[in-house]
Fold each of these.
Amino acid sequence: MNTLAKKIPDSVRLQTQSPWRRVAVEFMSSPTAVVGLLVLLVIVLVAVLAPWIVVQNPYDLMQLNVLDARLAPGSVNMDSGYTYWLGTDGQGRDLVSAIMYGLRISLWVGIGSALIAAVIGTLLGLVSAYIGGWVDALLMRLVDLLLSFPAILMALMILAWLGKGVGNVMLTLILLEWAYYARTARGQALTESRREYVDAARGQGIGPWRIVVGHILPNCLPPLLVIGALQIARAITLEATLSFLGLGVPVTEPSLGLLIANGFQYMLSNEYWISLFPGLALLITIVAINLVGDRLRDVLNPRLQR
Amino acid sequence: MTGWALRRVTQSLLVILLMTLVVFIGLNAIGNPVDILVGEDLNQAERLQAIAHLGLDKPMWEQYLIFIKGAAHGNLGMSYVYHEDAMHLILQRLPATLELAFCALFLAVVIGVPLGMFAGTYPDHPASRLMMASSIVGFSLPAFWVALMMIMLFSIKLGWLPASGRGETREWLGVQWSWLTLNGLQHLLLPALNLALFNISLVLRLTRAGVREVLPQEFVKFARAKGLSPMRVMCMHVMRNTMIPVVTVLAMELGSTIAYAVVTESIFSWPGAGKLILDSINSLDRPVVVAYLMVVVVIFVVLNLIVDGLYYLLDPRVRSEASR
């Protein structure tokens, strides 16, 4: 049995596996992507479990002690003997706890907005491809218009209307991002709808919407998945940037971007850690997501317009 | 040519008109500037008078028509905060932003092109691999954090470069510029470099791809066979053929660079239009926000028009497609 399996060339053996398994095997063949995925898993785990891991709730002002403000990394809390491994910020927040809570906001905003935008965008893209005509023309003009202006400009415009807040930042990200999914889904659906299997399904008398959802949509997923991964990284960066500019989350519940912004004023007195460590956490998260996304793109190999 | 240009210009004007509508409706739909601008201690009559003075009592469509009429004359209302013409405020600050943006694009070319040519000529060299890896970092790093780290390293630890303001300026063509004085240049370097990071990565990758495409072609081999020096082949033959996409992409990027200057300006306290717009968003100073958005949108649309026009002139394929 073993010797027989060895004689079969790789190309043949791969075809007998399920497509998702093939993708998983190919994904794992890149060590950097695996490292990226592991780091990402750890980050997600830390963010999800943060309330049970941290020593203090950084958003509960009662737990913060102003006397502990701006302590250097490694300082010890006099009362509880707890060590601030990464120091404290201007309000006396333990930076380890604050970063974990900040990661929660970043990931929630990034993943949440990307998922909602993916559903809306994919749906509109499929509708656009299926109906065609003036609906298609109008939707795609709108997509062109949205994508031709830089994200930060659109975000400033939308936040100027809506005001600050996590919900509004998410709404902004969704309004910006759906266009990417719509364009990709439409293009992919148009290509797929000319394939034989769609003709076959039609010949079997399957209704048009079942063809779109049950047959065309699954084949549009790979490129959408890749866009999703890269959009999450983009969304996290944009959220951090907007919070840094003071247009994102409220001051009492700092995300990573706002932590960095708050640390900026202390940097001139050489208290570098308040900006440095949240920034590193942000950086590691974004790079990990990008590593995973890049590998996914190579493995799934869609014809992406970047 | 005239037909194509006419259609393209009409299209651009439509986009601008559409944007005025979007900006206007959006800014008026939510948030009430009266609450912020008019003190709470005023009585009802004074309040109404203030609203009438700001023109906020008229119906929405009439406000829009007044807005459009004013916009056509370059008049987008008075700033609620500065009590000055909003357009005038933006245009006053715009040169500082443009100086920063052009300086960033200049740095992107000066740094990105040579590095990209090296990476394209020796794709397997360790330095080239390092450049490609760093360019990914340049794409994905949050620029605002890099800016803080640059300030920490170059301004605070090393003390080489100043981290805020424009420094000494000198007047030229009726506007104050930083790049005309040594002190101003020192102030310009860090923010411009920060703003340029994304474009440096972009130019590096475009140049590298172009060089790799051009190098194996016949005319390069012929130029070498003619006995031209490698330097001359690179500069005269390879570079000319790789620069068209780089220049067009950079022309398009100028718009985004101006938009992203908002972040850089707020960190380096650069007194440009971006810093003004942030303050205006925070104080709900609508006319200034609208004026800024309109100016950037017009810059964007005009840049796109110019690039399309250049393509039309340079690329016969676009011409045949347009005439169809």
Amino acid sequence: MTAAGWLTIVLFAVVLTALALPLGGYMARVYTGGRVFLSPLLGGPERLLYRLLRVDPGREQDWKAYAKRLLLYLILRTQNAFYVPHALNPLGYHSAPWNVTFNTASSFLTNTNWQYYGGETTMSYLSQMIGLTVQNWLSAGVGIVVAVALIRGIVGRSGKSLGNFWQDLVRTVLYVLAPISVIGALVLVSQGVIQNFTTYLTAHTITGLTQSIAMGPVASQEAIKLLGTNGGGFFNVNSAHPFENPTAFTNLFEMLLVLLIPAALVFAYGRMTGNRRQGYAIYGTMMVMFLGAVCVACIAEAHGSPAQHAAGLHTHAISGSTGGNMEGKEQRFGIAGSALFDVITTVTSCGAVNSALESFTGIGGAVPFANLSASEVIFGGVGTGLYSILLYVLLAVFIGGLMVGRTPEWLGKKLEAREIKLAGLGILVTPLAALFCTAMATATTGGRASISEGALSKAGGSTPQGFSETFYAYLSQANNNGSAFAGYTGFIQPNAGNLGSHGITFANLLGGFDMLFARYAPILFALAVAGALAGKRVTPAGLGTMRTDNPTFVVLLIGVIVLVGALTFFPALLLGPVVQGLTGHLY
Amino acid sequence: MKRDIVTSIIAVIVFTVLLGLVYPLVITGVSQVAFPGNADGQRVYVRGRLVGSRIIGQNFGTAVLEKNGKVKEVKGAVVTEPDPRYFQSRPSATEGGAYNAAASTFSNRGPNSVKTEEANAENIKAYLELNQPYDRGLTVAKIPVDAVNTSASNLDPEISPANAWIQAHRIAAVRRLSLARVNGLIAQYTDARGLGFSGERGVNVLMLNLALDRLGHSAQSAGSAGGKG
């Protein structure tokens, strides 16, 4: 890999930290009711929204009331995603088949943004906006809101209140997502991301051919898709498309948008607990695991793939070429810009991609697998990452307590059987859904119908690549990530446009179930943990209290995360990416 | 409960209007005023005719004709062969012919797949056939990876400088230009790294080819530079 590539990685980590620290402070003030510099501007719209929604922001809710409002709202919001309007529909697309629509709706509702459809060949502009852009905002908002409620439960010193769901949602949208998203979208347009409502262009090339070029309101969706770690691309190839990600600078900018809020929330957590070092410890844990993943992916991709070597290509860097595995990668991003982007979007629940994961080398491809296996606690999705890692913190404190033979305590609160059971369940439901669905899909003919032709051996049997595709599909959907080994499909499109296309019911339904179950079960467990902790009395830390804000705890936490992930997923990982990574054999 | 349902329904409507309509429309309005060229996709016109977008890759091939003079098609896609007078983009595997910018797609070629190896070998053969006659020293070992591997979007507007330098031999010979002149143009149309350190340098193929045509018009008639046999 080139020196510029390594420099990119280091500078990225520095800039991210420098931006996330102040944003964390800002968010902590937003959620503790303090005034922020945007209050004079946004106070009016905020009060207007409360009046429109008929809510009293002062009324606080316990965890059951909070969860009830959240679920009720989500159920009613489902209709958005199912409704595919026909206005602003330049190519006159028909609705996607019902099974694909179900999958897409589940996908955007759960912040997964899994795409069995191809944006520019299936969706009208209005359905992208009403159906998808709105979900991008609100599924992100709901994630943040749950994390905030959990923090309140952890630090709460009086009663059982977790705050007011509506107030949190409104403030998240107005004070956090809207300002960054508007600025982000405009920066993207200034660098070449498109934003228009014109019909697809027809160009007449200088060699006498014609080229049809898709258009659309891309930048507005691109900004919130990344900021909200949603990841559903306007176009089929997502952030690899030059209209979504035109330069190496936009690539950097987009990566920052993805990690900004997840990183800032960790610092906000530190401030809200009253001990910033709690936040730094978690940030340190995430950063160590993140940089480890980036290095492995970059080195593996720079090495090149067995298929390239078998064809006789030389993959080392030469003057004027980066070398490496450039299959499925864009020239302007190169190896480092591609590997870094894909690690970032798989440690978070973003799942946007700027290169083809399916074409990553075995070991390079194992990195996204490992990121997802760690249940996206390395930064994670907006909100989801923080509440997921807090469940792991709970588990680590418990295990640490057992090791030193003391009652485990966390931030002055005693941890008892109820919290640990709930946290354990919260941690395990996602892997359970992923593995169950993978097993179903590999064991049935209906499931194997989705495997791409390229991942079948000459005899037609499935290869390690086919297993990787399948496993990744359900792992990604369970973690609400949405990135894909994109050969795996639930939507056959024989022609450009969806004439004669059909959905694969099995993959669509199983995937939809996978996403919905694995998203909402952990949310309920996290809120239940918050409820259980909220009522507890705080006792001052004594000599025997295990510290959760020092490097020792960081090591313990990394150990617990790796151990849980490895024990759960190792057998399945061996069958797919590891086999591919260890062999030069072609299938 | 009833109150909560009412609130939820109102929230769905209010947020849909605000975030699904107002937000994209405001961004569109501002973009169209502040950055009209970018917002519309950096269209490139030659003598008033749209030839493409600066940031969307293109197929610089010519249509292959059948014996009866009709354009040859396979599965609805026009069959093309590279035009030796122009720099060639990276291989593209979009549906409906290479560089179909209405249907971007990943090629999804696995790292251990026989099919990937076959596709690579085929692209190597084509690249050698096109360029070896003009660059005798060219061997498989010297071919840069981007000339053989498909990009992520299959719409990559750029090629690596190494790829362009090899093709420069062909362009110089076919267009009767000096190699230094062609290499000078390549340098002119090479996009720098982002902020000086991020990403990789790439040569914008469409802009480079248009510059070649402009040279042709001022120096000699473009038509005289015939194709290779």
Amino acid sequence: MNGPDTYSVFGAALSRRGFLAAGGALIVTTAIGRPVLSMAANGDAAANSLDAAVPASWIEIHADNTVLIRTGKCDFGQSSIYTAYRQIVAEELCVPIEAMTTVISGDTDRTPDGGGTFGLLRTNVLNLRKVAAYTREAALALAAQEFGVPRADVTVRDGVISGGGKSIRYGELVAGQRLDLVIPTSGEAIGFGGLVVTGNPPLKPTAEYTIVGQPLRNPSIPGKVSGETHWVGDIKLPGMLHARPVHPATLGSTLVSAGKVDGKLYPGARVVVIGHFVAVVSADEWEAVQAADQVAAATQWTEWKGLPGHEGLFAHLADKVDWSEVPARKGKANAGAPADVLAKATRVHKATYNVPFLKHAPIGPAVSLADARADGSVTVHTHSQNPQYLRMSLAKMLGTGIEKVVVRTYPGPGHFGRSNGGNAGSECEAVLLSRKLGVPVRVQWMRHDDMQWSTQSHAAIAEIRIALDERGRIAAYDATHRSPPMQDDRLIGAVLAGLPAIDAPKAGTTDFIHTAELSIADNWVYGNVPNVGEQGLGTYQVGQRESPIAVGLRDHSMRTPIQFQQNFPREVAISEAAALAGADPIQFRLDHVDNERFTVILNRLRVESGWEVRPSPSPAHGATGDKPVRGQGVSIMLRDNGYWACACQVLVTPSTGEVRVERLTIVVDPGIVVNPLQLKRQVQAGCTMGISEALHEEVGFDAGAITSTDWLGYPILTMAELPEIKVVLAPRPESGVYGQGSESANALAAPAIAAAFFDATGKPARRFPFRPEYVKKMLEG
Amino acid sequence: MIPLTVNGRKHVVHARGDTPLLYVLRNELDVMTPKFGCGLAQCGACSVLLDGEEVRACITPIAAIGHREVTTVDGLPARWARQNGHGNGHAHGDAHGDAQAGPAHPLHPVQEAWIEEQVPQCGICQFGMMIKVTELLEHNPSPTDAQIKEALTTSGPSPHLCRCGSYAAILDGAHRAARLMAARRAAAIAAAGATSTDTGSGTSGSAA
């Protein structure tokens, strides 16, 4: 090749760093830092050791035609970064899927981009898609030089670049060389959203896709099933100690005196106190568990009663909170004059709806291993959905630079958004203990730690008014949503130890995630309604400002955050308004949506679910006794370019209050289906979690502490309760966008089940869970 | 010093007799597939087989195990091989290599079915799920949906819980495992009729 050593490819800089005797690679990096280039020449990416301060590459093309991609996102089992990401990058590079051999994820010293693991197919994959497009264009430019033909005469297909009667594989193109492609980005890796790839390289038209759409298997499953995978809790270091925290007695208690270890019973254990953070450590894990119980019983905390209790929560939110402290936000779809129309209307549905606090409730409690060294550096082995933000938060807590902190990630128990702002819970405690003791420390939270000291999905109340016109159509829709904030990413260990942390959610911040202001997140879908008024009212976290240790009920986004809390009231209210209009609930929705994609999936849902076309409640409603009554309900949602419709058939036993879901049918139009096999499993699982939330879940708490301490206090769905679940994929590839999977699916069950309960009984269900004690009240009401 | 037989290997462990089996497996024997979930026998993430009966390792003191053999997911391939007359059924490698060295035998049909059906989401509960389904299929080679649900809900000290919501996939996996086991046994019988040598023909019915 005779070209210049550096030239521009759609704004990216391609350069030749040198020639190698063996190997060779094209390495795509970000302008703000460079990896150690030799790492790729031997093809052994896993063995490289980068400077923790320098971002790694995005994509590497090796001389053997294999491709490695890196992403700061972490997979928690839904597989998108191992399946969809590989498929999308393979499409953009025009290489076979088999070439996509390696995905490196999460580790802060081995991935370039940072950012939270959310919106994977909505926004995040666009980074790698653009990187791949830059890479393909660079390769084509190199090949054109090689062939001695104009760039326009060069094409690529199945990994083979052709032009002027010649052809060359990617691997041959890079063999024996070290090529760098530096791409433009904005943002910073440790920012909440991470780096964003900028510029506009030409993207492959989605109509030409052949790999996207294939049912690729998840390559991370075999190792998990055989036992070869190393999970976060499996990591061990020489000389490490096991720790168990002794957390405060309430969410507002301060330490009076820490208990002492009974040295006769537990000779290897010792207590560590850092501020209000108390822990017990031992080289023997079982000794640490037992000694922590013994120390907890002997530790004195101040009393605190600053919470309303879960039974008083909704009255507290309705009557005690000053909602004028935080500026209101308006819905984007607001139109017309809903208040005027409602004032004159003769038929109005008006009701208040409640969503309880929910737990992310991973099956395994948080566990982390930290290794703080004498030079002030620290490596944390954990399972985070935003490792770079965790790195930033830990550096802040330690008062050190981010270059001192490395976060390594491993497969761990799914926790559904809880760590997308960095921490799942125990990381900071492991770091503090390791720094204090000078040895690696593994902190395994027990079940009660995870239930009581993790964050929760925020509760919400909504007042909804719907005015019908003389034809029974919606003339006006008005909703006021009220919630504590979505997300608190303070490190709990830093808070307890009195060390620096980011701010708790508050009003008047430019931090769009950690704000106390409440957005309208449930995309408005009923475009035929002429008058719409939605507003969001926010407040501070329940009990946080009253807590002497500034804790209280900390919140964190969980699957479909904010939209979950707003879609439930909206969809239940729409079903009740349909009943007021005497209309079938599916037909009522068809009459009010203005998007043809909803029309298609609602019609499909009617057929696939075996829907009985009629108004609610059912003719059999009002029955009493032991014989179950059957009902049907529907819900719809627009999220992340995905159009969703769900129908549930339920059985309600009036005498016992038992609610059983018989069948759930869900139709999704996500635009392009990247991987039908994985999407189907994601949707099945998401629906199942949604049923669990609807039937069982609510965080119990008293005046000071969370009382849902284990699986008896926070029951989730069991296998015996699994209904028949029918997933219908209704792709619209011509839309040119990828919609998301499992996250959205979980939100649809609760409103559909509530509507089905109303259909079966004639009694409105304006809250969940459908536990017998609540159902009996609904049936009396 | 308490003797323990785990996945076909005999050990003498140092832990005190009141130590739950889970901690001994993970910390002393490096057998890592049983996971800590609750420590209260409420979730099933730590399930192991004791001579074919599913128990919760998080609350089972090692002193209570006696001569019964412990089988974890790591030991399922060897268990299947032994049940079908292939080799001694002992995993290769030393005690500290069992989990890392990869299976010395082809995967158990339950594990294979879990891959075929793409069962796990996060996967933390699936070790216990696979143990429980193995126990079920050893007693009932062709269970109904209701029997699978019963096994994973009411037959043990607690339901086996999955937070990701993989229950529908687990049902598919259990049925596929039942079919695979039947096919393997039929193939093994046919192979035994054709030749008297042990050629590991138990994989001949593989759907992989």
Amino acid sequence: MIISNSQIELINVTHAYKTAAGPLPVVNELSLQMAPASFTAVVGPSGCGKSTLTRLIAGLLIPDHGEVRLHGERVTSPRSTVGMAFQNPVLLEWRSILDNVLLPLEIVPNDLNRSAREERAGELLAMVGLSGFEDKKPSELSGGMRQRASLCRAIVHRPEVLILDEPFGALDAFTREDLWQIMHALRTKEKITTVLITHDLRESVFLADQIVVLSDRPATAQHIVVSPLGPDRVVDDLYTPEPTKLLAQLRHQIQIAQGREVA
Amino acid sequence: MDKNLLRQIGIPIMAILIFLLFWEWIVWFNNWPNYKMASPSDLVPAFWKFRWLFLEYGWQTLWRTIAGLMLAVFFGVLIGMIMGFSRTMREGLYPLLVGFNAIPKATVVPVIALMFVGQDNFNTVLMAFMISFFPIAVSVSLGLSTLEPEYRDILRSLGASQFTIFRKIALPKTLPEFFGALKVAVTLAFIGTNLVEIIQPHGKGLGFLFDSGKISADYPLMFAVLIALAFLGIMLYYIVVLLERTFAGWAERSP
């Protein structure tokens, strides 16, 4: 077996959903590599199979062909070393914010006692600016605050892989930029290998180290670029020449993927 | 006493008093005899005259209703869970349940009375159960089957078992729907109990007292029984509200 230095590897992954009208191919011969502690953004036309990709990486779906590897090991079932956050923050309304964040630690085997768990959760909540909201119920928080709590929950158990499926998609523009900055701080501190699915090209350029443009369904890697931004980035950097050029290039690639332009 | 509690108790009591006054007035104004409609002032002597019977028969009606309700909760939740988790079972059971529920329960009373001759308590509890389990089963199955897939994914991606997902998410998330259905079921269960007590009189329950009033042409007694039933219904309803506040209070938004 070839030992690679990638944390996550997709090798010729092909997957189809079984529907009444026959198999519906969603992912086709997709190969990707993500280095440890790197941040990968995946963009592509609507309905191209991006969410299927997250479920494949999380082990919630097993591909028909090809394989997904974590640490060079083939993924065949869900594993507790993964954290997930979605566009819908799916907080448990009957639990306090603190207890919501603690949820993964109740399921994933760990040797932390109650106070150590609360300390860990409190630390994360402080990082995202939710100190003092530990005892509030999710319904008492704004959309942006709920999403921040959801991010804390996704990483509280120190997963090796973080999967974000459009977590900022439903937020207003200003809240979204705040959360980009918070997300960047979190990933820098926690050193998690992150995969972000997004429709927002600016978001992908600001947050990611590498950006993958998927083709229309069945999805395959159409174009992969590296973000020009360094580790100490701020949202203002997006308005400098290099990222602007990259954004134009990505936009062009999306239009190709949509079939509106030829390469 | 704080102002809110005063409001919560004061307003319903005021409403009841206004209703009773209006009732008294309309009977007096139309000069209705008590066989057409008894007035609240006719009811007081009726209650007093039969006070021990009201306690005895009221208790019989109450415990049999609660027993039927508890069976309805148990089997309703069970059937709801089966339908909520399995699409095949849901598609198979729905038409059966709807058909069963569509049968007027009054017609079932004699059938049951023949099936279990002389088993008065059993028959009555059974009817209270049969009439009240349907909304519980439907609400639980709906609550479980409409659980957003993301909730499942969050826990599944951590390696949680189906049982853990049920205990940590599906069960608590379904509680508000469950209590909503239970409130409906409470009043239905009283109807079930009284159907048996009135259609198949066996000397027990408020339904029997109602029937005796009819036979002896004691019209105020008949009205008094109706009021006693309403009182029991309100009591049980608010017990459910209390349970709801305790176990699913999170679903209530503070203004």
